[in-house]
Write a structure and sequence with these properties.
This protein has nine helices and 17 strands. By secondary structure, the protein is α+β, with helices and mostly antiparallel strands. β7 and β8 form a beta hairpin. α1 crosses α2.
Length: 334
């Protein structure tokens, strides 16, 4: 079965339908259909006729046909809660296990597929696969994600993100006590041997995160809040590992789940998203409710949970931590 998009090098000069059939290991009739549906390109130009001669050495690109794209959208088998919506944007509460946008390695339906299936009008300045996506969060991370409905809104929100006028506070449960609130300012690069993982490195890209303690949990664990001053892949997870802490359920970065009797979800949640509405400049703060599994983990906190997770309390903790850090720098400290 053909699974575009795919790129090949033409290994011989021949008819387009024969070449496509040979490259994709399919029949001539199926190759003809791909060409007639405008899904086959040679060196960036669509091949219009199956009989067209393709020269050896060129690049053959096979794109998804409109029919295949429609079929993919119909396979969306999840739903998403919308937390806020206006004419320019919406904020959703991303479920666990959902990839934000498509890529060659992504086989399942994405959040963008869900948006299209719902008929949401989206910005398109980032391309078909990333329509509407201003920022992303990892597949296993849950929580607040902002979507742009038009290109003007997308540009303004991207500007806010670049200037750090937009941001998120995350909530995480980790496998150790966080004795002191801390700012981790360490570059991050891809792991040298485990390519799906990131790590702190002197040759990496600049990255800075702040972590504050919210509550002690049983078995030596902690509930913490996280704030990013940069947006690197797996930044929270890599920075926590650098100080000997791991998010509960995150076996990729070192959490040992054997004591919990099996594989746990990763307890990392984008809790609060703050930004300004593109047209009016109105300051917005949108909170994403915790997942059922996260609520269950925090049940031991009882009635104190709501007080501990109060947005103003979390923001005040970061203000104090960052203020102390800036005061120390001003006094010649580190």
């Amino acid at each position: 079965m053909v699974k575009p998009p795919m790129t090949f090098e033409a290994h011989a000069t021949m008819r387009a339908d024969r070449l496509v059939a040979d490259l994709l290991k399919i029949g001539r009739n199926e190759a003809n259909e791909l060409i007639k549906n405008g899904a086959v390109f040679f060196d960036g130009t669509a091949i219009k006729k199956p009989s067209a001669i393709v020269e050896a050495g060129g690049k053959v690109f096979v794109a998804p046909t409109r029919k295949e794209a429609e079929q993919r959208r119909k396979q969306v088998d999840f739903d998403v809660d919308i937390l806020y919506e206006d004419g320019d944007l919406l904020v959703i509460n991303k479920p666990r296990g959902v990839v934000v946008h498509g890529a060659p390695s992504v086989k399942s339906a994405t959040l963008v597929d869900w948006l299209k299936a719902k008929g949401v009008v989206l910005s398109n300045i980032s391309g078909e696969d990333r329509m509407g996506i201003v920022h992303r969060i990892d597949k296993e991370t849950t929580g607040a994600l902002l979507i742009a409905k038009n290109n003007d809104a997308h540009r303004e929100l991207s500007r806010q993100l670049e200037k750090r006028e937009m941001g998120r506070y995350y909530i995480a449960a980790i496998d150790r006590r966080l004795k002191n609130d801390i700012i981790v300012d360490k570059p991050i690069a891809r792991h040298r041997t485990i390519r799906v993982k990131m790590t702190t490195s002197k040759v990496g890209r600049e990255a800075k995160s702040a972590f504050i303690h919210l509550a002690d949990l049983s078995a030596g664990r902690s509930l913490i809040a996280c704030k990013l001053f940069s947006g690197r892949t797996h930044q929270i997870r890599a920075h926590l590992q650098s100080i000997g802490a791991h998010i509960i359920g995150d076996s990729l970065y070192g959490y040992n789940s054997s004591s919990d009797g099996g594989i746990l979800p990763i307890f990392l949640h984008a809790y609060l998203l703050y930004f300004r509405r593109p047209k009016s400049g109105e300051a917005m703060r949108v909170k994403a409710p915790l997942t059922a599994s996260f609520d269950e983990l925090l049940r031991e906190l009882g009635e104190k949970k709501d007080e501990i997770l109060e947005v103003e309390r979390v923001e005040r903790g970061f203000d104090i931590l960052c203020g102390l850090r800036n005061a120390a720098k001003g006094a010649g400290g580190t």
